[in-house]
Amino acid sequence: MTGQPMTFAPDPKQNRWKTLDKDLGRIELLKQATVAIGRPSVAIGISLAFILICGLAAAILTGHQSGTLIIVAAAVFGAYMALNIGANDVANNMGPAVGANALTMGGALIIAAIFETLGSLIAGGDVVSTISGGIVAPEAVADPNTFIWAMMAALIASSLWLNMATWLGAPVSTTHAIVGGVMGAGIVAAGFSAVNWATMGQIAASWVISPVLGGVFAALFLAFIKGFINDVPDKIAAARRWVPLLIAIMAGAFSAYLVAKGLKKLVDVSLNQALVLGVAVGLATYFIMRPVVRRQSEGLENRKRSLKKLFGLPLIASAALLSFAHGANDVANAVGPLAAIVHAVQDMGTSEKVTIPLWVMMIGAFGISFGLLLFGPKLIRMVGQEITKLNPMRAYCVALSAAITVIVASALGLPVSSTHIAVGGVFGVGFYREWHADRQARRLNLLKGKPVAEDERVRRKLVRRAHVLGIGAAWVVTVPLTALLSAAIFWVLNAVF
């Protein structure tokens, strides 16, 4: 031993491994950045391909008729509108289920795409008369060319606004968007007297009626679940008693909803007949679900978290049924103006009775599905996760509220928007939780003999106020904004062509 410190020569192999790890890390970062940049580009590329295919299909199917170029242009913008409807409007049906972790994002996209397409193709196409003749009187726009440019302007304006709203993260009513577009072009084409202002007044009223009704019903159902299931000593016994009833209400409501709203093309029934059918389905479901819920609840712990399992499958079923009904109703927002243009070009008429060709319906159906798959996750996350925290029970209340509200509003003759109802239901659940938490805090302070702290309510805000204000503002400006945009586009089209 010399007493000198020992020295080790650096291991070349170890240095090589460190260098290799660094290089692999850089490559992985580059790969992640490429994927992040390329993902939006891929979605946009697929969308453009779909739009071009729709235009090409319209050209092939209409042949060499006069006005083919107009029909092709209308098909292109109709496909663009359908993509935007899928990106924006469908989130309202799937957002609560995803936010409650009852469905993964991938599962929600697949289920919604399937049921939206089925609803569009099987039961869609019954709302075109409202778009082509219910907002602006057809006789006021007697010239077919003027009518065509008015419908084209409405289609372009509503598509652009929906695209902007999706980019901003605001779920808006596609029905209000297309109605505003038709109104704006109609005013420029035929004057203010051509607009059915009574209908427009009802639509304006729905800005308030829809979210308030949706929120109130969702809050009431959540209060019922808390009072009769969650906050009782024997939660499992209470769940066995009340969960089958809640599922039966859902089944009956959706049966009446689908027959009255979504299946008009297949079944011609009155609202009263639909309600009778709903009651019958609800009773049958109740007796079927009682033993099912009993089996599902066996072995569950007597706590709130265990009860969430009982609402998972009903929540998924309700989301699928909402998607079917949405496809049946709102596909007309995409193909209504397109069908009216095809009808005006081929028949040189603007009658309210417009027959929708199958290829037009397919553009709407597949466009909604593509828009959902490519761009839908953004608003699904916003509705399901960013407004307020949802679990299966709260999300179930939102879905149940949507069906109940439409039925009640139809019976009372009140205009409602499915988008406003669903988002209003999420707001209602969140604000009820705030009120309930504040009430519990007050009660606890009183029991302890302490004064109620005002700042405690500030800390317990369970709904993001920014979303309340932002979404509310987007709802209010949808009709006037699309009307102004449509009026400007119509003026340009009419001047150029």
Task: Record keyword descriptors for this entry.
mainly alpha, 497 residues
Question: How does the major sheet shape up?
Answer: none
Q: Please tally the helical runs, counting DSSP H or I stretches of 4 or more residues.
A: 18
What percent of residues are in strands?
under 5%
Number of strands: 0
Please trace the helix and strand order, writing H or E for each element.
Answer: HHHHHHHHHHHHHHHHHH
The backbone outline, from C-alpha atoms, is elongated
Helix residue percentage? over 70%
What's the mean pLDDT score?
82
Structural class: mainly alpha
Round the Cα radius of gyration to an integer and report it: 27 Å
Please give the alpha-carbon distance between the first and last residues. Answer: 101 Å
Could you name the ranges where pLDDT drops below 50 across 5 or more consecutive residues? 33-38, 454-458
Short summary of the structure?
This protein is mainly alpha-helical and 497 residues long. It contains 18 helices and no strands.
Task: Kindly describe this structure.
It contains 18 helices and no strands. By secondary structure, the chain is mainly α. Helix 12 packs across helix 13.
List the helices and strands and how they pair.
Elements: H1 12-62, H2 68-88, H3 91-99, H4 105-123, H5 128-134, H6 144-168, H7 174-190, H8 197-230, H9 235-262, H10 271-297, H11 304-307, H12 312-347, H13 358-375, H14 377-386, H15 392-412, H16 418-447, H17 454-459, H18 465-496
